[in-house]
Amino acid sequence: MSKENLFTKIIKSLQSFRQTLGLKPAAQQNGDAMAKLIHMLENTDERELSCDEVFAIIDQYAELESGGEDAPSIFPLVKKHLDNCHDCLEEYESLSQILATTPMQGN
Ligand SMILES: [Zn+2]
Predict the structure, then answer these.
(1) Which of 9, 34, 53, 82 is the most exposed place for a label (fewest CB within 10 A)?
(2) How far is the CA of 55 from the centre of ligand 1 (A)?
(3) What's the rounded mean pLDDT across residues 21-44?
(4) Which domain holds residue 79?
(5) What Cα–Cα distance (Å) separates residue 14 from each residue in 6, 26, 38?
């Protein structure tokens, strides 16, 4: 089942739910909002990460980088966010420093 079909189904159930409640369907408005949501979900590769999302994976990013991997290529959205967000960049830099001064376990 494609995402679009799934969301069409969700929209239809929401609309019938509204009708059950006796609400007037705001079809145009709902359609627009839902179209935007679908567009956003289908273009996850292009969307920007939030600080919370970056914070959730920044340690992996820093670890890759300190391990000599090309972290910006693996997580381009993180790199893009770091270029624009001072808070996350600071977090990344302090993590990098910790990783650089802490020997890897098991090595
Ligand atoms: Zn940020």
Answers:
(1) 9
(2) 8
(3) 59
(4) 51-101
(5) 12, 11, 15
Q: Which of 84, 83, 79, 78 is nearest to 52 (CA)?
A: 78
Whether the model clears a pTM of 0.85, i.e. scores above it, the answer is no
CA of 31 to the centre of ligand 1 (A): 31
State the distance from the centre of ligand 1 to the C-alpha of 28, rounded, in angstroms: 34
Residues with CB under 5 A from ligand 1 (ion): 51, 85, 88
Helices 86-101 and 51-66: angle between axes, nearest 10 degrees: 30
User: Sorting pLDDT into bands at 50, 70 and 90, what band is 45?
Assistant: low
Indicate whether 77 and 95 sit together in one domain.
Answer: yes
| Whether the predicted pLDDT of 62 surpasses 80 | yes
